[in-house]
Automatic annotation (TrEMBL):
<dbReference type="GO" id="GO:0006351">
    <property type="term" value="P:DNA-templated transcription"/>
</dbReference>
<feature type="coiled-coil region">
    <location>
        <begin position="115"/>
        <end position="151"/>
    </location>
</feature>
<dbReference type="InterPro" id="IPR025422">
    <property type="entry name" value="TGA_domain"/>
</dbReference>
<keyword id="KW-0175">Coiled coil</keyword>
<dbReference type="GO" id="GO:0043565">
    <property type="term" value="F:sequence-specific DNA binding"/>
</dbReference>
<dbReference type="Pfam" id="PF14144">
    <property type="entry name" value="DOG1"/>
</dbReference>
<dbReference type="InterPro" id="IPR051886">
    <property type="entry name" value="Seed_Dev/Stress_Resp_Reg"/>
</dbReference>
<feature type="domain" description="DOG1">
    <location>
        <begin position="6"/>
        <end position="233"/>
    </location>
</feature>
<protein>
    <recommendedName>
        <fullName>DOG1 domain-containing protein</fullName>
    </recommendedName>
</protein>
Amino acid sequence: MKNQVEEKFAEFFEKWVCQLDDYSQQLIRISKESSSEAEQQALVSKLTSHYKEYYTVKWALAHEDVLVFYCPVWVSTFEMAYSWVTGWKPSIIFRLVDSLRKTMVPGGGSLAELTEQQLRKIEELRLKIRLEEEKVEREMERQQVALADRKMVELARLTSRLSNGEVDGLVEVALKGLLSGLEKVMKAADCVRLKTLKGILDVLSTKQSVDFLAGTSILQIQMSIRGTKRVQAYVNTSN
């Protein structure tokens, strides 16, 4: 049974992905048409605001129950297999840019026409983001180790000597610290994700940003669809 936070975010996420799909179709259409730079920039701004909304809602609800974001019911097991600290791993963005650059047809200022200066800036960003990923991973490891630190071991040893009320109070205090740490790690990971998106968009031209955001949106939507289909196929074969 879903708790209240799960229900709220699952409902929000479903609507958010539908809107993302709509934006991705607009990005594809505007990329193919002879649209003005102002029109392209307006759509880029809408999509970046859409991503910011996702994290605003996520952080607000995570403050109520952070654990649901480490084991989300609103994503498929396929998506979970590629999850990194409650979301996508930032470094995957650089592989996506490289793939788009190699597969897109040159012309009209597309990602296939990144300049040497742009490529150098993207590589510099990639190295910085990798360091930040490692920092988040170290902090996550520290939180995991905290589960077996001296205070938690002592708490486990004392449970046989204390009343249920005293044990419950001590457990609540201990868990509060652990959950606060997990929330901190989650936000740190999300900040790296946002920093990666902003860093890439700062390097790209408006037209290239349209192509890039179309690629990221389609990837996210297709992973969700593929995962859902795999789950449904498994259910069908099991019946």
